[in-house]
Amino acid sequence: MNELDCVRLTRDFEDLKAGVEGAIVYKYNDDDFEVEFFDADHETIGVYTISRDYLEVTWTFNR
Fold first, then answer.
1. Under a CB-based contact definition with an 8 Å cutoff, are residues 47 and 35 in contact?
2. Is the separation of the CB atoms in 35 and 22 below 8 Å?
3. What pairing do the DSSP bridges indicate for beta strands 44-51 and 32-38?
């Protein structure tokens, strides 16, 4: 997982439900990321620091 990759929650996290999608905006290390999550209208829900254990990649940004 890297910055700009699109991800999906695999299970509930704080006030977010599994299935919510977002994009990695910052990679702290191999296990922790800052992710901006979006609703169905592509409006930002919030930005969260989250472990890779909660995420799956849905699209990879090719550098």
1. yes
2. yes
3. antiparallel
CATH number of 6-59: 2.30.30
> SS in 3 state form for the chain?
CCCCCEEEECCCECCECCCCEEEEEEECCCCEEEEEEECCCCCEEEEEEEEHHHEEEEECCCC
Specify the pairing of strand 55-59 against strand 44-51.
unpaired
Res 62: pLDDT: 82
Q: Where are the domains of the chain?
A: 6-59
Render pLDDT for 15-41 as a digit per residue (tens, 0 to 9): 999 999 999 999 999 999 999 999 999
Please answer whether residues 47 and 25 qualify as being in contact, where contact means their C-beta atoms are separated by less than 8 angstroms.
yes
**Nearest-angstrom CA–CA distance, 45 and 28:** 21
